[in-house]
Amino acid sequence: xxxxxxxxxxxxTTSNTDSAVSSVRRMLKNALLIAVRDSVLxxxxxxxxxxxxxxxxxFIGGFLLFPALAGEPCHSIEEINxxxxxxxxxxxxxxxxxxxxxxxxxxxYLLLTVDSEIIRVWNxxxxxxxxxxxxxxxxxxxxxxxxxxxxxxxxxxxxSMCIVIPxxxxxxxxxxxxxxxxxxxxxxxxxxxxxxxxxxxLVILYWVFCLVFGSNAIFTAISSQCPPLVAWxxxxxxxxxxxxxxxxxxxxCNCYLCGQYIKASEGVDPSPDxxxxxxV
Amino acid sequence: MNVSEFTLNxxxxxxxxxxxxxxxxxxxxxxxxxxxDRIPSIRDVTAELNVNPNTVAKAYRELELGGLIETRRGxxxxxxxxxxxxxxxxxxxxxxRLDELYAALVTSAGMMGISEREAVAYLxxxxxxxxxxx
Lengths: 280, 134
Hints:
The structure holds two protein chains of two kinds. Chain A has helices at 3-11, 20-37, 39-69, 77-86, 90-122, 129-138, 140-150, 156-168, 176-189, 191-223, 228-266. Chain A is mostly helical. Chain A has one domain. Chain B is mainly alpha-helical. Chain B has five helices and three strands, in the order H-E-H-H-E-E-H-H. Chain B is elongated, with a radius of gyration of 18 Å. The model of chain B has no long low-confidence stretch (mean pLDDT 81). At the A-B interface, helix 1, helix 5, helix 9 and helix 11 of A face helix 1, helix 2, helix 3 and helix 4 of B.
């Protein structure tokens, strides 16, 4: 008996009659439904993305600000590189690491806010802005220790988004290694559906981006032949549409990942409504 | 029985629906819940414990199939009145729990690099020890 068969028999996550493909298809459909249906979640995702964008903006701004403050304003990436190579110091490294840590913490915090509310919506409740923030705040120490662990490794944000943060919504451990271990153990239960789902998610994201780029190309083509005022309106509409599509993609990915987490931890395919009508 | 009596462990690795089944069946088989006692509704459990309605529905369905609880339309879920079902169910439940414990043991042993054969040999040796004979 292998560990894999034991896990599958004990968790009973995939029944014999229900294939992984149909389970993933159902989950993707439900994730789309949640992302489209709950406007509070979309607002929450939009606020999160705005804050992350603000942070990235200030991070880049900070890089440009240091040379300007030192009286050597930079106008290209080469100049910035040259400046930081010349002024390499322990303080600069500490500041850069501090900023990176803050960014990681902020991203994880916001992700937890969204994920906790997504799980509520999966469980048939309404999303609530304040409750999401409260949940994330109650996991402050867990988020802090996890952020300390992942700060030096940039790629770890993918691990955070995909497996750790959904688990943290209902786990209070402050040991980051334990968090990672538990997340991996949960992921092993549904690895087949997880991989299939990533492919399905990428296909959906591809079509959304095709739609966005296609519509933006049409907007640009039309606006070049219109009076300036109409052109501005069209371009603004294109930008707003792109931003909305970005928020939707972010939300949809998180909805799907949270759905997979529920399936792994609860042992049942979740759905936002009890479709069997058995609510007693 | 109140929802507050439900204690679920999200980090144990045991699926939540199975934890609910074990919790309620444990209470019924140990006599804490008597035939006719009311079980919290799916809606209450879902709202209180932040678990998916399908999870609670699956747990209740399993309990119902096992003859431990019954659903009365429009009234809710109750411990089944079925007489004589308890000893038979107790055996199947015992068997199921032993299967789960065995699977968990083999998984944990495998993670530590101990093979299933070694784990079983250890259990056999442990059972043969004089203090375990009674």
